[in-house]
Amino acid sequence: MSWEPRSLPSQAGKTVVITGAGRGVGYFEAEQLAAAGARVILTTRGDTTALDLIRSRVPGANLEHVALELGSLASIRQAAESLRELGPIDVLINNAGKTGGVKQREVTADGLEIMVGTNAYGPFALTALLFPSITGRVVGLGSLATRLAKADLADLEQSHGTYSVSKAYAYSKHGVHAFALELDRRLRAAGSGVQSLLAHPGFALDGSASPRPGVTDRNSAGQRFGERLLRPMAHGKDRGAWPVVRAAIDPDATGGQFYGPARSVTGRPVLTTPVAQSADPAFGAAFWTLAEQATGITFDV
Ligand SMILES: NC(=O)c1ccc[n+]([C@@H]2O[C@H](COP(=O)([O-])OP(=O)(O)OC[C@H]3O[C@@H](n4cnc5c(N)ncnc54)[C@H](OP(=O)(O)O)[C@@H]3O)[C@@H](O)[C@H]2O)c1
Question: Which residues of 227-240 are buried (b: 16+ CB within 10 A; e: fewer)?
């Protein structure tokens, strides 16, 4: 069936949790889903500007806020507890991700390499802890970066050799793909009604999005200059949210699918294909084991 991202089916009565919804693609996912009538629970690292902004744009928006720092298993546990208290979750969008700001190998509060720890192991832990409350879908935020580097599961956290930030990001997104697709396989095997999907925003910039004061204008002058140069090959983060929203609510979408922009980096949200490595069931199972070891959380579907 065709999908019109500007005219979403009503989500009245649905509860959607979106991590990292205070800015970027996550903000627009929250705004679009709130406008469709969903109750949206935004997690941020504390800032609630996004909630005020959505309320000013979407009269009657039904919003809640929970604080979450994905670089800390203690914060993930605390957030999961707060989220569970808010009732059943129709959709969990694991949107938050560390996209930059790293020059050399850094670690999370729990000693995990910061990109893999935040982007891959963090959502694994949050999903595992929230799983009993999830009734509908889990959506992972994948990336084309997985096409640029093969992941080394023997050293996913780059504990040995020369550290590369771009490799760390790509590895973290291989982890996201592996987790989402392995979760889909395990859910199907268990006969669960919950679905696990992937989506990626293509190449999405704040500066190309419809302006949202306090949200899309937070980049430094240097970042804004860089964005101006990249604009011809990118779209706005508002459009970057489209494939994620489609994966979250399209009634015709199903577990194991991956949505992204039609022209890879820009365009309307369509079905796409993950790279072979992170779609490999053996890779998925191995990542699952690594994630359980790293987080100390056993995830039984
Ligand atoms: N934009 C793209 O072109 C693109 C392409 C492929 C994939 N993606 C993925 O799409 C997602 C959103 O990207 P974006 O462009 O919107 O990125 P962004 O503008 O950098 O926003 C990232 C979001 O993640 C949150 N976050 C970062 N580190 C966190 C942590 N340790 N704990 C909790 N939250 C954290 C940020 O919160 P704060 O505001 O507190 O920092 C922010 O809300 C990410 O997973 C990214 O990897 C983006």
Answer: eeeeeeebbbbbbb
Distance 244 CA to ligand 1 centre (A): 13
To the query of whether residue 169 is one of the catalytic residues in this protein, the response is: yes
Pocket test for ligand 1, best of 18, 19, 25 (most atoms within 8 A of CB): 25
Q: What is the pLDDT along the chain (301 residues), one digit of tens a residue?
A: 689 999 999 999 999 999 999 999 999 999 999 999 999 999 999 999 999 999 999 999 999 999 999 999 999 999 999 999 999 999 999 999 999 999 999 999 999 999 999 999 999 999 999 999 999 999 999 999 999 999 999 999 999 999 999 999 999 999 999 999 999 999 999 999 999 999 999 999 999 999 999 999 999 999 999 999 999 999 999 999 999 999 999 999 999 999 999 999 999 999 999 999 999 999 999 999 999 999 999 999 9
Exactly one of 27, 121, 169, 171 is catalytic; name it.
Answer: 169
Spacing, Cα 99 to ligand 1 middle (Å): 6
The reported pTM is 0.98
- Rounded Cα gap, residues 181 and 124, in angstroms: 12
Domains and CATH numbers, the chain: 15-294 (3.40.50.720)
User: Residue 100 has which token pair?
Assistant: 């930059």
DSSP letters, 225-268, are: HHHHHHGGG-EEHHHHHHHHHHHHH-TT--TT-EEEETTSSSSS
